[in-house]
Design brief:
The structure holds two protein chains of two kinds. Chain A has a single domain, classed as Sandwich (Ctag/Cox11 (Pfam 04442)), CATH 2.60.370.10. Chain A has two helices and ten strands; from the N terminus they run H-E-E-E-E-E-E-H-E-E-E-E. Chain A is mainly β. The longest helix of chain A is centred in the first third of the chain and has 18 residues. By secondary structure, chain B is mostly helical. Chain B has a two-stranded antiparallel ribbon with strand order 1-2. The chains are: A mainly beta, B mainly alpha. Chains A and B meet through helix 1, strand 6 and strand 10 of A and helix 7 and helix 8 of B.
Chain lengths: ~150, ~550
Amino acid sequence: MFAFAYAMVPIYDVFCEITGFNGTTGRVDTEQSYAVDEQRKVEVSFFAMTMGGFPVQFGPKVHSMMVVPGKFYTTSYIAKNNTDETVIGQAIPSVAPTDAALHFKKLECFCFNRQTFKPHEEVEMTLRFVVEPELDKRIKDISLSYNFFKLDS
Amino acid sequence: MTTATTIEATHDDHHHGPEKGLMRWVKTTNHKDIGSLYMWFAFTMLLVGGAFAMGIRAELLQPGLQLMEPQFFNQLTTMHGLIMVFGAIMPAFVGLGNWLIPMMVGAPDMALPRMNNWSFWILPFAGGILLSTFFMEGGAPAFGWTFYAPLSTTFAPDSTDFFIFAVHLLGFSSIMGAINIIATVLNMRAPEMKLMDMPLFVWTWLITSFLLIGAMPVLAGAVTMMLTDRNFGTAFFDATGGGDPVLFQHIFWFFGHPEVYIMILPAFGVVSHIIPTFARKPLFGYSSMVYATASIAFLSYIVWAHHMFLTGMPVAGELYFMYATMLIAVPTGVKVFNWISTMWRGSMTFEAPMLWAVSFVFLFTIGGFSGLMLGIAPADIQYHDTYFVVAHFHYVLVTGALWSIIAATFYWLPKWTGKMYNEKLAKIHFWWAVISVNVLFFPQHFLGLAGMPRRIPDYSLQFADFNFISSIGGFAFGASFILLTYIVIDCIRNGKPASSRPWEGAKGLEWTLEPKAQYHSFNTPPSRKLIKAESQHS
């Protein structure tokens, strides 16, 4: 059972990936094509947070977008380092509602890697995503939030 | 040759009793000695944890901060919880198990007596390490007994590492105790005693032992991950490194939910002995009691996330954990109905053990019902982390687990000491405790429903009246333990001699022994006839 406690770590990761539990978002590697219903619209809202004394200003370029499920969209977040030091950070995404997390897929995201911000540098970080048409018809709004954490090295 | 004669020489000495002096208690491998050590240790810890609770209630007597810094208040709530769970309730049940299980199954001692000694003697050190954190820089752990990450990893005082070590030791002790009980019940049971002849206290402890062996290593895993997160750069619970603080709650409650049944199943066993005795009827539904206990134990492993309804679970998860939780009410209800049916049309008398047992049934069921309310996912959004939760788990742990321990103490005290306690004082003590405990905890339901959060040293003015009542009840309840201490010591020193079966309707192999059970009992196993005659059921 001691080993089981440790086994829960990978089990939990796989479980979150399969179910979208905990708002875990998915990832696609290529711009695959989906059956698109042009009439259907879903509103995606973008949020940003910083944690634990992260000294970089960080926010979405646009606060919300109307998207057609099955089509790829590009938007971006802007980060400005106001300090005299180089800051390294990692963004952790989360999608609500959880039922939507499973069908929110990212092709390109600044959260895939750690980001380095040079002193007084302002960067625009792109995000390319698709909402899959398999998304439950009852869901009309999706919130995507990023939480930036400071890394020490 | 010489060794052979020495062994023979010791074997000839059939009447050897305990060793003389203090070393008896350090070196003892006797289940009765170790049982007493456990009980006294648990009682000491109960008084220490109770003193912390008095501090908490004194601060909460009035709104505003009067006596202590908020940080110290948080240390008190944390240590109160840890000491009561790991220092008082669990060792008390292991102590009862040590004293009673060998006598109940007709065995001369526990199966692994040296390990038994070791599993007790770890405890004072673990408890000492835990309590010593109060005197360290940064103070004792202040993150609540549930020690959620990142509060217990990133933001915790340095003394947390001592807390982790103490939890490891307590876990070792519990696991060794559990192994010992399983080995005793399965290997040392009188050859003529079938599993379904066993008294319910033995059954509930056997099942509890499996829960301990399943759950405690998971706790050890959780604190080990904390340890490496804090000191060795891992990131199990740190989102920056790809970990997840919610994972901590999953691991913790995967241990934590079986843990609450570890603390209540032996209580069910105790009550299932006392009620038939004083109702002078066989226990109603013996086999359904056994199956219900086993069902509760199984279900306890698959409901843990009902403690986490507010972590953002998908609706399907909330529904599953809600229904699974409701399911536990079925076997628990079977037990409550069986106790009531045992009393039905019985020739009841209300000596102290029966008073405690009957009030256990009543008050534990109140705690069970508030538990069902908390298990309803949509309602839990309102109740979560309020005083309603505090009221709930104190009803099941104080008027549940602790009540059964006090009931068991009065019930078996004649067998342990050969003397009777003062019945009149015991009744006064009972009514004092049962009234004050309700004054203490019942208003906390109202505070919780009105929205007072738990673990805070100060509160809004609208909560003042109920907190005042609750604190007054708390002081009265705390004082009742002075009387309890007096009654027990008075019994040991000046009690009138008891008969070997001081309770008219009592059944069980332990009552066939001398008034004060000898140092070594059941050197020859009891016969089938005796086992049948002393069985709880016909």
